[in-house]
Amino acid sequence: MHLALTDQILKEVEKPARYIGGEINAIHKELCDAMIRFAMCFPDIYEIGMSHLGAQIIYAMLNEREDVWCERVYSPWTDLHKIMKEQKIPLFALESQDPVKDFDFLGITLQYEMCYTNVLQILDLSGISMFSADRNNDDPVVIGGGPCAYNPEPIADFFDLFYIGEAETGYDALLDLYKTHKMSGKFDRNEFLHEAGKLPGIYAPKFYQTHYGADHTLTSFKPIYEDLPHTIKKAVCMDLNDAPYITKPIVPYLKVTQDRATLEIQRGCIRGCRFCQAGMIYRPVRERDEKKLETLAREMLENSGHEEISLSSLSSSDYSALPELVNYLIEYAGEQRVNISLPSLRIDAFSLDVMRRVQDIRKSSLTFAPEAGSQRMRNVINKGLTQEDILKGAGDAFLGGWTRVKLYFMLGLPTETDEDLLAIPLLCNEIAKLYYELIPKEQRKGRVQIVASSSFFVPKPFTPFQWAAMDKREDFLRKAAFVNHAMHEQLNARSIKYNWHDASVSELEGILARGDRRLSAVLLYAYEHGALFDAWTETFHKEPWDEAFLKTGIDPAYYIHRERSTDEILPWDFIDIGVTREYLMREWEKAQNGVTTPNCRDHCNGCGAAVFGGGICYAH
Predict the structure, then answer these.
(1) Burial of 541 (0-12, 13-18, 19+ CB in 10 A)
(2) CB 160 within 8 A of CB 129
(3) Residue-by-residue DSSP string for 214-274
């Protein structure tokens, strides 16, 4: 294989192993005329992209087809980006090192809004026209998917298609349709995109028109052809046991963010936190069979040599066969000298017992996510967690040998008051105080460490808070300063450390999360004037974005600092996730009144996800 980059360039860039491919379990195929070439892109650096489970599943799934060769593409870091621009080196896929522009499809997973300028980087370095309207028959079909595709409108002009939902169910039909058009000998891009737009879960944005009123709100959204659907229903894989999965994970040459085998035990979440987009868009809850998971775990570890395996789920504690699975993994891991990682666990007696058996307590910390300090605020967001629960979990952890606790909070939640903010340091102090009450002085291993972090609330589509106003940057900073000052006034302040996120990044995330097509001009201007890797603290610069809004005449406050009417047409309303608008409105009203909703396992709340005909909705 001939590398796309010269030895000289590889010597000049940081971590050249990001760009050479050839890892264990990477898939290589013999090319033929009938083969569809699919470039699977994660628009961030190699270490982040290689850690993403969804992209790995799609890579393995597409390569199961003999007529498809799926390869990987990641964003070049800023050093290589500069060299590729200067020397006009086209972006390439890792396996073949061939230019992305030569592929049939460029699939881009959209996991967070702050990667949008990286999407433009991918198109730019590939030599693909930025706008779908400017592409010709020889250009790859650019298709987006992932959680951000549930509001594709801010980036709709840059994509030919979006896949709304879970990839296991619909990609075969899309690829078969492409092959039929391609093999006809007279491939017409627009004809293919038109036909693709009729497939379940596929959205072809160029064939939909938007109109706006004098107040700038959306007044209509409809297809330009009568045979295209007005509503795109998400594609859902209801049987995870028969779904494709990774049995031969690619083993990278360098350390990546999640350097381990990942075992997805279930999809969806029963909890119904009102700020959580994933908890709504991945409904209904579906579990993998415990015996199937045992088999997958063995195969992944044996085929990769990984020394750690992690359970993947929005809430692992809610997996019904967790005790049986964990006991099996602990026994197997002990024999194979493999570590077990158990994220997303509630801190209860069972979880602490398990973690004690699989972790080195001296080196590890426990994580709680109360999200809010006061019980009133936790009721507003439907967290389903009381202060008694938190203190009992912390107390059990201290008695079990842990001395470091991480706490995650959000500032700027709907209906929040200064009293709610003050409850954050008070809760931190109570947890620290509990340690000193429970653990005798002679048994303590130094001072307890309470590390509290707060992010700023960003209202997301398809949540009950999608109508909420977002705080201004100065409000966020005032609240963070208020909490920080109150932390220092606590009796146990020496045991508490507090930090918070960048408010400018949160504001931009909010704009891109709930924006519409008019933002494409802002995105393009920002990228062309230096915005790139906006999710990274060291590379995020506010100035290109401020200038972009100014030059395009778009007011960012319109998108974030106003509460939206429940009668307003939202840019993402044309997507049907199963969870109904009526349910989200009921939850929005309950939130404002501080009324909680039981979890899905305790009581069906009629969210609408039962329309998919399976999962927890039919489990009882």
Answers:
(1) middle
(2) no
(3) TTS-EEEEEESSTTS-SSEEPB----TTSS---SS--B-SS--TT-SEEEE-EES-SS--T
Residue 517 is which amino acid?
R
Q: Which residues pair with 308 in a beta bridge?
A: 339
Q: Which sign, positive or negative, has the C-alpha torsion 110, 116, 120, 125?
A: negative
**This model's pTM is above 0.85:** yes
| 210, 224 contact by CB (below 8 A) | no
Domain regions of the chain by residue span = 7-233, 237-343+579-620
Computed on alpha carbons and rounded to an integer, the radius of gyration of the chain in Å comes to 25
Rounded to an integer, the average pLDDT of 82-91 is 98
CA torsion 460-464-469-470 (nearest 10°) is -40
Q: What is the pLDDT of residue 618?
A: 86
Write down the pLDDT at residue 620: 54
DSSP code for 470? -
Sign of the CA dihedral 564, 566, 571, 576?
positive
d(CA 577, CA 62): 24
Beta-sheet pairing, 308-312 with 261-264: parallel
Distance CA 1, CA 253 (A): 17
Hey, what amino acid is at 542?
Answer: K
The amino acid present at 57, given as its one-letter code, is I
The pLDDT of residue 573 is 98
Angle at 461 between CA 258 and CA 373, to 5 degrees: 70
When pLDDT is averaged across residues 387-405 and rounded to a whole number, the result is 92
Q: Cβ–Cβ contacts within 10 Å for residue 364, how many?
A: 14
CATH fold of 7-233, please?
Rossmann fold (3.40.50)
Q: Compute the distance between CA of residue 549 and CA of residue 557 in angstroms, rounded to an integer.
A: 10
The topology (CATH level 3) of 237-343+579-620 is Transcription Regulator spoIIAA (3.30.750)
Residue 553: count other Cβ atoms within 10 Å of its Cβ.
Answer: 9
Length of the chain: 620
**Structural contact between residues 431 and 407, judged by C-beta atoms closer than 8 angstroms:** yes
Q: Which of 373, 361, 364 is nearest to 430 (CA)?
A: 373
The DSSP output letter for 165 is: B
What mean pLDDT comes out for the span 267-289? 97
Minimum mean pLDDT among 400-404, 482-486, 574-578: which range? 400-404
Are 527 and 512 contacting, i.e. CB atoms less than 8 angstroms apart?
no
The region, left, alpha or beta by phi > 0 then psi within -120 to 50, assigned to residue 193 is: alpha
The DSSP bridge partners found for residue 417 are none
Segment 530-552 shows an average pLDDT of 97
- Per the listing, tokens 């028959």 go with 137
